[in-house]
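Saturday, quiet lab. Running sequence design on the structure tokens for the scaffold JK sent over.
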């Protein structure tokens, strides 16, 4: 009893594969995330449509939810209408703007994911964990490539563009094959507890490595020139290099608005990587 997703939705004698589900990716939906936008997504097998869903983007100042409308069981003569909301959340991007994520709508789940699935016989879209889904590649044996591919598919809930080569590069060709396989298995087994932001810099560590002051960092954050990548305010390690450049410009007397103008316009110049940049105007 209760809201959608309640009951024995996660029970199965055999794991369903994600390849058998309707998959909805926030990455492919991104161009449609405009307030008030209405659209329809279709799934096809060959030239035949096997499913579709209508959606509308909801929100106030920015999109914060999707209203989903679709029908199940029409072919069996027992159609069931569904109309419910999937909430969205965001994380800031270092260069400005935000990255959108789904919040799994299954009752009791709070996962932030990049993909939602509707398995055969299912009624509501949910995350892979709630439906206990597996991948076809998990039946392909234990070759190095298939193991890396399995891990990359796991990562796609958070990093939609991840592929098996990215995972292979994590080992940099230096780890023996059997150790790489064991490491991949460990990541698969412990994925729910894996912190994709391990090694990211705190505000203090970023200031120490870049030469910025705490005041500088707050000004740059407020102007969206240097945004944290995580909810708890941590930064990608590579941003230390960007922070050094910003610290240099501030030390040379550049105003925040000047830096924002340079950062926005530099890619239109013939040599966008010129350093130090030519200062267009100086305040007297």
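Result came back. Writing it out in full:
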């Amino acid at each position: 009893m209760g809201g959608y997703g309640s009951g024995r939705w996660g029970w199965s004698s055999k794991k369903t594969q994600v390849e058998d589900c309707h998959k909805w990716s926030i990455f492919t939906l991104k161009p449609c995330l405009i307030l008030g936008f209405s659209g329809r997504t279709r799934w096809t097998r060959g030239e035949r449509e096997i499913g579709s869903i209508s959606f509308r983007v909801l929100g106030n100042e920015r999109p914060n939810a999707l209203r989903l409308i679709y029908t199940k069981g029409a072919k069996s003569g027992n159609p069931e209408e569904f109309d419910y909301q999937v909430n969205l959340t965001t994380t800031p991007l270092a260069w400005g703007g935000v990255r959108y994520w789904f919040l799994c709508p299954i009752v009791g789940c709070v996962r932030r994911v990049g993909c939602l699935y509707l398995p055969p016989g299912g009624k509501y879209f949910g995350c892979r964990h709630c439906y206990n889904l597996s991948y076809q590649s998990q039946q392909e044996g234990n070759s190095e490539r298939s193991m890396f591919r399995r891990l990359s598919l796991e990562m796609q809930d958070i990093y939609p563009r991840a592929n098996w080569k990215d995972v292979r590069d994590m080992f940099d060709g230096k780890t023996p094959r059997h150790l790489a396989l064991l490491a991949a298995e460990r990541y698969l087994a412990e994925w729910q507890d894996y912190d994709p932001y391990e090694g990211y810099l705190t505000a203090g560590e970023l200031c120490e490595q870049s030469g910025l002051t705490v005041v500088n960092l707050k000004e740059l954050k407020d102007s969206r020139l240097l945004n944290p990548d995580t909810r708890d305010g941590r930064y990608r390690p590579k941003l230390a290099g960007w922070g050094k450049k910003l610290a240099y410009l501030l030390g040379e007397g550049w105003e925040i608005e000047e830096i924002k103008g340079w950062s926005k316009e530099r890619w239109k110049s013939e040599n966008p990587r010129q350093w130090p940049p030519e200062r267009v105007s100086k305040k007297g």
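Notes for JK: The radius of gyration is 23 Å. DSSP finds eight helices and eight strands in the chain. Ask whether to fix the surface positions before the next round.
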